[in-house]
Design brief:
three-stranded antiparallel sheet, globular, Rossmann fold, binds adenosine monophosphate, alpha/beta
Length: 216
């Protein structure tokens, strides 16, 4: 079984949804920098206030802040069983820092799952995305509706639209993806770690494809 995995892809490719499905099946530590920032924002900590000033505009949180956060989380004992990095790294300096951290803590990255999706579909998915305020479960106003409007099927929490899921921020986020994150595809291809998956297929099909790859 492959462990120590990076889940990569543009905003809206389905990283969060897939991560949740994979974590139900595999005993891995989920490290989502986006979730960590959102928790800090909710608690209004110093990190949260700083992160919010970038995230609400669609910008990336500075590398030194993000790298320190992930370094601390990865160094904890529980990551020995394997981890799923979701939304990190997003820049070349982050990928280089991760390479060093992985050596320091002797937990080498074993695979980079790259979700491919076209821009039109990304915009459709993100502009209709709703998320549960309590458990973070994802929904979509057209394709993944809750049973009761505005209420999470899983925990009954209220659904909301992320404040960075608006048209203005989305443009900036997609630009950051192209300029900062896309170069990582070559970076990991050069290291023979990259595996591409088409995220336009049905979610259960995509999950099965990734699952069979991880069980290899
Ligand atoms: P996500 O939930 O992964 O879409 O992340 C939400 C937002 O958090 C992103 O649009 C960024 O502003 C910020 N963020 C998450 N991960 C990173 C990262 N690795 N580097 C910089 N900013 C990040």
């Amino acid at each position: 079984m492959i462990k120590n995995i990076i889940l990569m892809g543009p905003p809206g490719a389905g990283k969060g949804t897939l991560a949740k499905m994979l974590l139900k099946e595999y005993d891995l530590v989920h490290i989502s920098t986006g979730d960590m920032f959102r928790e800090a924002m909710k608690a209004k900590t110093e990190l949260g206030i700083l992160a919010d000033s970038y995230i609400s505009k669609g910008h990336l949180v500075p590398d030194e802040v993000t790298i320190a956060l992930v370094k601390e989380r990865l160094s904890r004992e529980d990551t020995l069983k394997g981890f799923l990095l979701d939304g990190f790294p997003r820049t070349l300096p982050q990928a280089e820092a991760l390479e060093k951290i992985a050596i320091e803590i002797s937990r080498p990255i074993e695979a980079v799952i790259n979700l491919e999706c076209d821009q039109k579909e990304l915009i459709r998915r993100i502009s209709g995305r709703r998320v549960c305020k309590v458990c973070g479960a994802p929904y979509h106003i057209d394709t993944l509706k809750p049973k009761v409007d505005g209420i999470c099927d899983t925990c009954g929490g209220p659904l909301y639209q992320r404040n960075d899921d608006n048209e203005e921020s989305l443009k900036v986020r997609l630009q950051h993806y192209v300029v900062d994150t896309k170069p990582l595809i070559d970076y990991y291809e050069d290291r023979n770690l990259l595996v591409n998956f088409n995220s336009l297929v049905a979610l259960d099909v995509l999950f099965d494809e990734i699952s069979s790859f991880l069980k290899k």
